[in-house]
Amino acid sequence: MPYFRHRTHYPSPPEKVFAWHMRPGAFERMSPPWIKVRILAREGGIHDGGRVVLGIRQGPTDVRWEVRHTDFEEGHLFRDEQVSGPFQKWIHSHRFLPAEDGGCFLEDEIEWTAPMGSAGRLFAEGFIDRELNRLFTFRHARLGNDLALHGRYGGKPLTVAITGSSGLIGSSLRDFLTSGGHEVVSIRRRSRGATGEGPGWDPAGDWMDPEVLEGTDAVVHLAGESLASLRWSDAKKEKIFQSRRQGTSLVARTMAGMKEGPQVLVSASAVGYYGPQG
User: Fold this and answer.
1) Which residues contact 216 (CB under 8 A, 6 or more apart)?
2) Which residue, 100, 146, 191, 199, has most beta carbons within 10 Å?
3) Kind and range of the H or E element at 248?
4) CA distance 123 to 185
């Protein structure tokens, strides 16, 4: 059975690195941009019996991959074992080993068997080994960068409200914050007076429920007219501009009208930024 191993040292203690893996958003942060993967179902976290079903895009089709978690040891180990998917066998061990300097060695070990028996192994073994090395080089670098950035600021966990949290930047920010131990409140669009949907906002209707910002420390405003378009006509450009003007004004006015609202607003509307403007 082919065997793959990737090991990296981090200055953080094992319990801190392990805790990062247990939080929402960790898997999404570990998914590289060149693999199109969707979480179809997930339950039970990384404890024994936890289950994840993935849809991985390969050409025009989706490959369904189901794994279950086993051998959970708090702060030390958890495993993923394939239930069904592209391999004949797949066992992935995540080990968190203490280092003499107080840091941690993260060790990923994978035992796998290619599909189609010996013929498949002869064809795929070199390719799979290269792809695994590429994948875990990315994953270990991403983890190190995230841990370093969270460690740089420290302090207590925050509650951050985000508009546009399902977008390209918003979803990445959401997963970065939650995997670092912060809480994210996603501000959803809904019409005023709609019932059963919880607090939200309607930037086109110039309405925002202040309740959605209650108890938050900061707001990150990313929502606006989609930039994805084959052609930016005059009408499209006006929609882009007005959506950002109206949405930013609404968020700012709502915050200003609260007695104990969030103290920080970060608003991003382009690839650049304006800097502090007093």
Assistant:
1) 159, 160, 161, 185, 261, 262
2) 146
3) helix 234-256
4) 47
- Which residue stretches of 24-116 are H helix? 26-30
How many other CB atoms sit within 10 Å of the CB of residue 244?
20
pLDDT tens per residue, range 228-274: 777 888 998 888 888 889 999 999 999 999 999 999 999 987 656 66
Whether residue 48 contacts residue 72, with contact meaning beta carbons closer than 8 Å, is answered with yes
**What Cα–Cα distance (Å) separates residue 108 from each residue in 75, 84, 128, 142?**
14, 21, 15, 14
pTM for the predicted model, two decimal places: 0.88
d(CA 152, CA 144): 12
Q: Position 154: which residue type?
A: G
Q: What is the mean pLDDT of residues 1-16?
A: 93
Task: Compute CA distances 145 → 10, 141, 176, 264, whole Å.
Answer: 10, 6, 11, 24
Largest CA distance in the chain: 69
